[in-house]
Write a structure and sequence with these properties.
single chain; 202 residues; alpha/beta; Rossmann fold; 7-stranded mixed beta sheet; two-stranded antiparallel ribbon; 5 helices; 34% helix; globular; binds D-malate; hydrolase; Alpha/beta hydrolase
Length: 202
C-alpha cells in the first residue's frame, strides 16, 4: 500500500497508524499524530480504493452503504500490510495505536471486528458500525476512543451508540466523546482525544 513512515525518537512509544477520511491521503493526518505523541513512529496509509479520484479504504455502494465483500477483502489487505510493514520498517508490531477519521475510522473498526490482537488501542473519529451480525473477537481491556457528533448526518447518534455497545460487549474499554458539529473533526474533539491518549499510553 502507498504509505509514509517516519521513525520516532522514542522506541517505547506506540507506533501511530493513521487512516485518512474519503479524499484524503497519507499526509493528511500526520500533524495530528505529532499532537498525540511527538516521539512516536508514524505509519500513515493511503486507501487503495478510488471513488471519483478520491482515495478510500474500501468501496461503498452509496453514502453509508458499504460494499461488504470489498470491506472484508480490504480489511485483510490492511492487516497483512501492517504485518509486513513492521518487518520492513522495524517497528514493534505489537505496539500499534490506530488513529482514523470517517472512512479511516471505519476500516480501523473493521480491523477490530475481524482480527484479534491487531491493535493496542484505537482512536476513532466519527466511525460507523463497519459490519453487523459477526462475532467480534475478544477485545479485553482494549482502549478505544470514539469521537462523535450528536448531529452527525453520516453517522447518526444511535449508530454511534450501537458501535460503542458492540465494542464494549467484546471487552473494549471505550470512551465516547460527543461534539455537536456534524461530521467535522473539531479541535476540542482532538484535544480530548490527546488527553485520553496521554492517560492511556504515555
Ligand atoms: C464511509 O463510507 O466510510 C463513510 O460514509 C464515511 C465517509 O467516508 O464518508
Amino acid at each position: 500500500m502507498i504509505h509514509l513512515f517516519e521513525k520516532g525518537s522514542d522506541p517505547s512509544a506506540p507506533t501511530l497508524v493513521l487512516f485518512h477520511g474519503t479524499g484524503g491521503n497519507e499526509h493528511q493526518m500526520v500533524p495530528l499524530a505529532k499532537e498525540f505523541s511527538p516521539g512516536s513512529s508514524v505509519l500513515s496509509l493511503r486507501g487503495n480504493v478510488l471513488e471519483n479520484g478520491m482515495p478510500r479504504f474500501f468501496r461503498r455502494l452509496a453514502e453509508g452503504v458499504f460494499d461488504e465483500a470489498d470491506l472484508i477483502f480490504r480489511t485483510q489487505e490492511v492487516k497483512d500490510f501492517l504485518d509486513q510493514a513492521a518487518v520492513e520498517h522495524g517497528f514493534d508490531r505489537d505496539n500499534l495505536v490506530a488513529v482514523g477519521y470517517s472512512n479511516g475510522a471505519n476500516i480501523i473498526g473493521s480491523l477490530l471486528f475481524h482480527h484479534e490482537g491487531v491493535l493496542k488501542g484505537a482512536i476513532l473519529h466519527h466511525p460507523m458500525v463497519p459490519r453487523r451480525g459477526v462475532a467480534i473477537p475478544e477485545l479485553k481491556g482494549l482502549p478505544v476512543f470514539i469521537g462523535a457528533g450528536t448531529n452527525d448526518p453520516i453517522c447518526p447518534r444511535p449508530e454511534t451508540e450501537e458501535l460503542t455497545g458492540l465494542l464494549s460487549d467484546a471487552g473494549a474499554d471505550v470512551m465516547l466523546h460527543w461534539e455537536s458539529f456534524g461530521h467535522q473533526l473539531t479541535n476540542s474533539e482532538i484535544d480530548t482525544a490527546v488527553q485520553w491518549f496521554r492517560k492511556n499510553f504515555a
